[in-house]
Amino acid sequence: GFLPSRVIIIGFGRTKYTEAAFRDRLRKLLLPSDSCPTSPPGFPGSPPGVRAGLQLLRVGSALQTTFKLTPAHVESFVERCTYVMNDKQGSASLQGIFDHIKSHEEANADAKAHNRIFHFAVPYSVWPEVCQWLKEKNDEFPNNGCIRLVLEKPFGRDHQSVLELINTVDKYFKEDQVYRVDRYLGKEILENLLVMRFANRFFAPIWNRDTVNTVQILFKEPWGAEDQNRMQYFDLQGIVRDVIENHLLQVMALIAMDKPASLSVEDIRNEKIKLLRSVKAIRKEDVVIGQYTPGNGHPGYLEDPNILGKPSTTPTFAMMVVYIRNERWDGVPFILKAGKALNEMRSEIRIQLKSVPGDLFQGADLQRPNELVVRMQPTEEMYLKMTIKKPGLGMEIVPTEMEYSDSAKDMQDHSQAPHRAYERLLLNCMHGENRRMVHRDELLASYTVMDPVNKMVDNSAVPLHHYTF
C-alpha cells in the first residue's frame, strides 16, 4: 500500500529470464518471506537479475496506510515488475531499460513528474562507467522529474578509493541525488533509540562516562560466509569491512553522538561526523580477529569451493575496543564484535552502567549492574536490566527486566506487516528523504577510523586465531 499507483520496477541483468519467469521467481520469494524471518541476508536463490544488475523505480505519489501482506497484494506488486536482459556492452546495454522508461512515461504523460531511481546492485569498481552511461542515457531521454541513485556498501576498499569514487560520481550526479544505504540505519529500533535518548529526561544525566561502564555492539550469525552466495565478495572484504566499518560504526555514532540542534539531516550528520572524528587511533592490542574451522558437521572457511587451495587469511570474526576522545565518553570502552559461524543469530547494543557505589547488598550473588539492551535482530526490542526484591517476607534480591518489544510477531498479531529496513530506506529515497542515508563526509570519517585497522589485518600485524564452526 505504500507504492504510488503508477510505479514500475525494472529488473536488469545478464540472466536469461522471460518476464513471466521473472515474475514467478518473485512470487516464490515474496510469499514465504514473512514465515522465514531468520533467513540469512542476501536472499540465497534470489533472481540474479535482481541482485546483479540495476533496478529502476518510477515513483510519484504519497504514501498510503499500512496493510497486511496477502497473496493479492503480492500479485499486485509483481504485475508492476518487468525484466530486461543485458546482452550488450557499454552504454548500449542500458537501451532496453530506457525503452521501457520512455514507453511508460509516454503512457502516463499526465503525471505531474516522471521520477527515476536507479538501484546499483553492481560492484563499486564499475560505478564510474555505469554513472557515465546513465548520465548519457538520461540526457538522451530527458524527464521532468528527479533522478536518484541508490548505492549499497561496500562504497570502496579504503579512504583513497572511497574519495576517488565520490569524486567520479560527482562528475555526473550531485550529492543530493546520491542515496548511500546502510540497512541498519533503516531499522525501526534505531529510530526509537534516537527518540528514547533525547525525549526522556532521566537518560540525559547517565549517558556519559560518569555512569556508563562499557558499551558493546554485537553482530552474530550462525551461518558461514558461503550461505550468502557471495563468498568471493566476502573473501575480498572480510568481516571488518563488511560489518564493522559500515553497520557497527554507524550504530556507535548514533549511540554516542551529542544532542543535535534539530532533527534536520545536516544537524544529525554533523554530530555523527564530530563523534567519528573524536575516535582515538585503534591500537593493534585492542583488535582480535579469527577465522572459523570445520566443526559440528559444517565445513571450515577454507573448505569452501571458492577458497579451497588458497591460503586465505580473511577474518570471519573480529572484536575491537574503540575509545572516544571527548568530554562525554573519555575512558569508556566501546566494544565492537562481529562474526560468522557463531552459536546464534543476534545483533544488539548493550550499555552497561557502573556498579552502585556503597552497595548495601554486597555478597548477593544475583546482583548485576544495570544494563540497557537494544536488540536489532532477530527481533527488535529494548529492555532494561535491574535488580529488585523478590516478593515475600525475606530480603532476597533478584534480577529482572523491563521490556519494550516491537517484534515481527507482535506486529503480525496486530495485522501489520513488519517494516523491513530496506523498504523504509527505499521509500525514503522515493520521497527525497536522506536522513537515514550515509553522507559522503560520514563515509570518509568512517574510513579514516578503520583504515589503520584494515591495514593491520591485511598485513598480518594482528594474529589470526581459529575457532570451531
Distance between the termini: 42 Å
What best-fitting shape do the alpha-carbon axes yield? globular
How much helicity do the residues have? 25-40%
> Largest beta sheet: what is the strand line-up?
14-13-12-11-7-10-9-8-15
Structural class by secondary-structure content: alpha/beta
Radius of gyration: 24 Å
Individual helix count: 12
Q: Report the β-strand fraction as a percent range.
A: 15-25%
The stretches of 5 or more residues where confidence is low (pLDDT under 50) are 33-67, 408-418
Q: Mean pLDDT, rounded to whole units?
A: 84
Number of strand elements: 15
SSE series: EHHEHEHEHEHEHEHHEEEEEEEHHHE
**Main sheet, how many strands, which sense, barrel?**
9 strands, mixed
What would your notes on this structure say?
- The chain has 469 residues and is of the alpha/beta class.
- Helices cover 32% and strands 21% of the residues.
- Strands 14-13-12-11-7-10-9-8-15 form a nine-stranded mixed β-sheet, covered by helices on one side. A six-stranded mixed β-sheet has the order 3-1-2-4-5-6, sandwiched between helices.
- The longest helix has 26 residues, at 231-256.
- It starts with 8 loop residues before the first strand and ends with a strand.
- The model is unreliable at 33-67 and 408-418 (pLDDT under 50).
